[in-house]
Amino acid sequence: MERKIVPKLRHPFLNGLKELPEGRTKDLKEIRSWMETQPHLPHISDEYIYLFLHSCFYDQEKTRQTIENYFTIRANTPSLFADRNVYSDSMEFVTKLACSFKLPTKTPEGYTVVMYIPRERENCEYVFSDAIKGFCIYNDSIISEDGLVEGYVVILDIKNMKLGHLVRITLPALRAFMTYIQEAHPVRLKAIHVTNTNAFIKQFMRLIAPMIRSELIGLLRFHRGSIPEGMALEMFPKDLGGEAPTTEELSLEVVKLKEKYHEWMIETEYFVADESKRARKGTWWSLFSGSNEIVPNSDDRQIGGKDQNALRELEVD
């Protein structure tokens, strides 16, 4: 008899949603009915379904595809989504590599701003897949804390990044991450700002260009300074020229999140697709099985020519 694992905690929101979306019961029921016809997908809470619906602006087809992508990628990319013990040696090391934090105030549009700043280190010998795993763990905890928000703005400050960071990148993990962010991450991503750009940003962009869809290219902005043009100074840490607490002070929140989400993160490993129960084989998803490489779908194969030209034309503010 098959053993059904029942998580002890609430997912994907540890504290639950404060308010459920109004007038969306029909949308919820339609997705629930569809999931019941997909034996390979895990049973998830109504709140989990609302997360996907909200991120897809309640578009039914996009929601179904995002759910499929989300649980399949998580099942078939264990280097990024398995062994989510936040106190493991590898995750403790990843925490020391970068400051990760939310800015204390939102944008005028109501968007949450999340910053990632690699710390200055002489030794760049990190495991790239571990760094991506830590990034995804932090993102999951932020989603749980925030609930359904209007949108996210991501800022990556690369002032401390060196060529040594680039040579540690592994293509299978990079492909998996880029596919996940573009096809499965259940948030409304509004902008990605790369600040304190340096000489090797062009090499990095050439590396990831074939993996970027035109929609994501439209969100990318590059800046020579620490604060993106047009964003209020009071939102940013003092050590970056703003008026908020310092980057190190803001990143202390990660320590609290690790303690709060330790058991919860381990339980998230239950929410994956079960390939042995997939009703129809022979789709591109079957190519995931037993491999950490992500195979692009038919839409991704269209990336090239026009989109890469658009990427090359991006200017640094």
Name of the CATH architecture = 3-Layer(aba) Sandwich
Radius of gyration: 19 Å
Q: Let me know the CATH homologous superfamily.
A: CRAL-TRIO lipid binding domain
CATH fold-level label: Phosphatidylinositol Transfer Protein Sec14p
Average of pLDDT: 85
Tell the overall outline: globular
Order of helices and strands: HHHHHEEHEHHEHHEHHH
N-to-C span: 61 Å
Widest sheet: strand ordering: 1-2-3-4-5
Q: Characterize the main sheet.
A: 5 strands, mixed
Instruction: List the uncertain runs.
Output: 282-316
Describe the structure.
The chain is 40% helix and 9% strand. It is α/β, with parallel strands linked by helices and 317 residues long. The protein has one domain (1-275): CRAL-TRIO lipid binding domain (Phosphatidylinositol Transfer Protein Sec14p), CATH 3.40.525. Strands 1-2-3-4-5 form a 5-stranded mixed sheet. Helix 6 (128-146) links the parallel strand 2 (112-118) and strand 3 (152-157). The longest helix is centred in the middle third of the chain and has 19 residues, at 128-146. One of its GO terms (molecular function) is phosphatidylinositol bisphosphate binding. This is CRAL-TRIO domain-containing protein. Residues 45-248 form the CRAL-TRIO domain. InterPro entries: CRAL-TRIO_dom (IPR001251), CRAL-TRIO_dom_sf (IPR036865), CRAL/TRIO_N_dom_sf (IPR036273).
